[in-house]
């Protein structure tokens, strides 16, 4: 085989391997990591008219970017060792469409992309010119898959993949919110609650979503504090001016789930929930919204007053309500309700003893309590003092 044939054959292998690697990266990046973010962007930009299918979207975007690369490669005809640079425009576009702002619901903005893309393309063209003037080294016979040229291409593509991933939206809370809303739209509250389940990062909007998903399952009083909670009772429902909002999910669906769409969305969540109770339009979930709102605010006295209106005080109460009653019974000298449970009383007293053991070391106490009591209302209630 002549040297020219060897180089042509090796260049073909480099192109084929590069194409496979790019397609795998693009599809995985779009389908498994950025699908929900693109769905939010499409929802906002289309005014909610269109929706994004992550499988179709990943395939279609990858195919378009690949066609762009093929066109650029056929025009530039770079030496095989520099072939990876023909993927730069495709990866720049991929970075752009996944760099959605976490504040996109407040208004779309191009950000720095208009001038940054011009600068990057100019620099890329300058590099392309220099590379086109260089000659490719001879390939090593029989070692095309492990040649220096192949590894230079793979390393270059790897670096561009890393940059693309860093430029794309990596805000974990925004990802959790987007995924939760997609699951809720699909009618899958269990799938929604898996988003960020093992993460402690949250915000008021994510807490609002979890409250809604748990309420749909009828598990709000049992599981709310097994997730990180942020915000107050005012943030349980999207109301005008409270800063809590859905990204894609229709707010009216939440209102209908609770009982009725409010005439005015400028009021407070508490006022809205109480109006549902007073009008007789409240769904079963409203009582748990009111009670969990009191617990989130650490308003233990209001919680008890509302609890005796909505539930019978016995061992069938949801877990967090029983924990709150144990706390209330131990805290108040003249409690409105006295509640005891042998197991929970023992656990609570053990927690008090643990607090005393670390009384002089707040940091150690916080760590010990987190390890043993995170997921209980007691831990949440005492967290303010840590």
Shape: elongated
Give the helix level as a range of percent.
Answer: 55-70%
What gyration radius follows from the Cα positions, in whole Å? 28 Å
Extended strand count: 0
Give the total of domains.
3
Q: Approximately how much beta-strand content do the residues carry?
A: under 5%
Q: Describe the biggest sheet?
A: none
Structural class: mainly alpha
SSE order, one letter for each helix or strand: HHHHHHHHHHHHHHHHHH
How many alpha or pi helices? 18
**Uncertain spans, ≥5 residues at pLDDT below 50?**
137-143
Distance between the termini: 75 Å
Mean pLDDT: 90
Output the keywords:
mainly alpha; 3 domains; 0% strand
Task: Describe the structure concisely for a colleague.
It comes from Xylanibacter muris. With 386 residues, this protein is mostly helical.
Can you describe what's shown?
Mean pLDDT is 90; it is low at 137-143. Helix 2 crosses helix 7 (172-185) and helix 14 packs across helix 15 (319-331). The protein folds into three domains: 3-169, no CATH class; 171-298, no CATH class; 311-386, no CATH class. The radius of gyration is 28 Å and the shape is elongated. With 386 residues, it is an all-alpha fold. Helix content is 63%, strand content 0%. The protein has helices at 3-33, 35-45, 54-76, 88-98, 113-132, 148-167, 172-185, 189-193, 204-217, 220-223, 251-258, 269-279, 284-296, 300-310, 319-331, 342-357, 362-373, 377-383. It is built from 18 helices and no strands.
Write the layout of secondary structure elements.
Blueprint: H1 3-33, H2 35-45, H3 54-76, H4 88-98, H5 113-132, H6 148-167, H7 172-185, H8 189-193, H9 204-217, H10 220-223, H11 251-258, H12 269-279, H13 284-296, H14 300-310, H15 319-331, H16 342-357, H17 362-373, H18 377-383
Transmembrane segments: 12-34, 55-76, 82-100, 112-131, 151-174
Protein name: ABC transporter permease
Keywords: Membrane, Transmembrane, Transmembrane helix
């Amino acid at each position: 085989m002549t040297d020219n044939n060897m180089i042509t054959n090796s260049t073909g292998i480099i192109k084929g391997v590069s194409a496979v690697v790019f397609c795998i990266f693009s599809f995985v990046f779009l389908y498994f990591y950025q699908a929900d973010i693109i769905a939010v962007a499409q929802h906002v930009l289309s005014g909610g008219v269109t929706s994004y299918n992550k499988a179709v979207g990943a395939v279609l975007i990858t195919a378009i970017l690949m066609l762009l690369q093929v066109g650029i490669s056929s025009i530039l005809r770079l030496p095989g060792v520099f072939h990876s640079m023909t993927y730069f425009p495709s990866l720049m576009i991929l970075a752009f469409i996944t760099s959605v702002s976490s504040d996109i619901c407040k208004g779309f903005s191009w950000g720095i992309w208009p001038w940054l893309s011009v600068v990057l393309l100019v620099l890329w063209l300058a590099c392309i010119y220099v590379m086109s003037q260089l000659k490719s080294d001879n390939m090593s016979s029989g070692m095309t898959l492990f040649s220096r040229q192949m590894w230079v291409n793979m390393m270059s593509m790897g670096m561009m993949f890393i940059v693309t991933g860093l430029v794309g939206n990596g805000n974990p809370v925004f990802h959790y919110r987007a995924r939760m809303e997609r699951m809720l739209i699909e009618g899958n509250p269990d799938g929604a609650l898996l988003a960020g389940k093992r993460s402690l990062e949250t915000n008021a909007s994510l807490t609002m979503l979890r409250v809604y998903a748990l309420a749909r399952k009828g598990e709000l009083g049992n599981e709310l504090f097994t997730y990180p909670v942020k915000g107050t009772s005012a943030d349980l429902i999207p109301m005008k001016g409270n800063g809590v909002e859905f990204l894609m999910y229709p707010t009216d669906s939440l209102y209908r789930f609770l009982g009725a769409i409010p005439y005015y969305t400028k009021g407070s969540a508490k006022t809205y929930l109480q109006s549902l109770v007073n009008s007789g339009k409240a769904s079963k979930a409203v009582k748990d919204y009111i009670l969990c709102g009191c617990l989130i605010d650490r308003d233990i006295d209001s919680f008890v007053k509302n609890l005796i209106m909505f539930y019978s005080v016995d061992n069938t109460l949801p877990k967090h309500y029983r924990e709150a009653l144990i706390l209330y019974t131990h805290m108040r000298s003249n409690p409105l309700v006295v509640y005891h449970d042998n197991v929970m009383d023992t656990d609570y007293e053990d927690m008090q003893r643990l607090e005393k053991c670390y009384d002089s070391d707040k940091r150690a106490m916080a760590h010990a309590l987190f390890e043993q009591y995170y997921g209980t209302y007691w831990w949440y209630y005492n967290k303010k003092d840590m």
